[in-house]
From TrEMBL:
Keywords: DNA-binding, Transcription, Transcription regulation
Taxonomic source organism: Saccharopolyspora gregorii
MF annotations from Gene Ontology: DNA binding
Keyword Transcription regulation: yes
Coiled-coil region(s): none
Protein name, per record: LacI family DNA-binding transcriptional regulator
Length: 337
């Protein structure tokens, strides 16, 4: 070893074990005694040994890499704080477990086939796929791969045999609307998410369940696109169509901020004239709105922890029954409602 990088043979010699035992200990094999594992771990630390990833892959058939797949345009990804927070949290949890994050984004329609080929090529041990849109061919292609996959949100394909982790979007939409009704508001409208995403449709369903069939008319809902500009446009349309409105549930925080801007332009005071509730409770958005935004809180860190833990179990070969895990949400009250 003098003058060069320590080798596996050096680790074995320092630990007083065979090369095979040292290799098994470094690659987390259960066929190693606790004492031998302690000796090898100590030798690795003392020598500063770094395993050869290529050689380790041959032994374990693992790459140490996890793909995060986003079927979102770049501008939406960088503008929406929810996606940025999710990527940051996934990266933190994977690095803590000595795994590498590979971010795969769809830029053009033909990227779906490129990503499916990459995932099928043995470059990663598993994949996390976030909230695809209606008509996206990627979920079906990923589902058919011999690769552990966990979906964040519901894909537009049969969920049979899939592993999903999601927040309670229906319950959140209902909770937001029930809060507005409890304040004595009677004309509660909603700025919905895109109609090609399950999250937006489920939050709309929660609003409908709370206001009742008689009030849940098409005139009292307007689709947005999960952006501030989309929320502002939708709010302006609702003000023109339902001038008596006195409350609005926006299906995410960014659209709620856009709605606040439209209400201010129209001379409506918040919350005196119109109460507003958003969805996400993102720390960079909701507390800093004008006025600070009451919102349904969904925790991207909680969802990420559950997704990563589930994927690691699947990669390890654990038998995990397919299904949809639904995580709770809560109402956070601030000045807007």
């Amino acid at each position: 070893m003098p003058g060069g990088r320590p080798t596996l043979e050096d680790v074995a010699a320092r630990a007083g074990v065979s090369r095979a035992t040292a290799s098994r200990a470094i690659n987390d094999s259960p066929r190693v005694s606790p004492e031998a594992r302690r000796q090898v771990d100590a030798a690795v630390r003392e020598l500063g040994y770094v395993p050869n990833r290529a050689a380790r892959t041959l032994v374990t058939r693992r790459t140490g890499a996890i793909a995060l797949v986003l079927s979102e345009p770049e501008d939406k990804f960088f503008d929406d704080p929810f996606f940025a927070a999710t990527v940051r949290i996934v990266s933190q949890h994977l690095s803590a477990g000595d795994s590498q994050l590979v971010l795969l984004m769809v830029h053009r329609p033909d990227d779906h086939a490129r990503i499916a080929r990459y995932l099928a090529g043995g470059h990663v041990d598993g994949a996390l796929v976030l909230a695809p849109h209606r008509g996206d061919p990627l979920p079906a292609a990923v589902r058919d791969l011999p690769l552990p996959v966990v979906f964040g949100g519901r894909p537009w394909i049969s969920e049979r045999g899939l592993h999903l982790v999601d927040h309670d979007n229906v319950g959140g939409g209902r909770l937001a609307t029930e809060h507005l009704l409890s304040l004595g508001r009677r004309a509660v409208v909603t700025v919905t998410g895109p109609r090609d995403e399950h999250a937006g449709l489920e939050r709309l369903r929660g609003w409908r369940e709370a206001v009742g069939d008689g009030e849940a008319t098409a005139a009292r809902s307007e689709p947005g696109d999960f952006t501030e500009a989309g929320g502002e446009r939708a709010m302006a349309a609702l003000l023109a169509r339902v001038p008596e409105l006195d409350a609005v549930f926006a299906a995410n925080d960014l659209m709620a901020v856009g709605a606040l801007r439209a209400l201010r332009t129209a001379g409506r005071r918040v919350p005196a004239d119109v109460a507003v509730v958003g969805f996400d409770d993102h720390p960079a958005v909701a507390p800093h709105a004008d006025p600070p935004l009451t919102a349904i809180r969904q925790d991207p860190a909680l969802r990420t922890v559950h997704m990563v833990a589930l994927l690691h179990r699947l990669i390890a070969g654990d038998r995990v029954a397919p299904g949809r895990e639904v995580l709770p949400v809560e109402l956070v009250r601030r000045e807007s409602a």
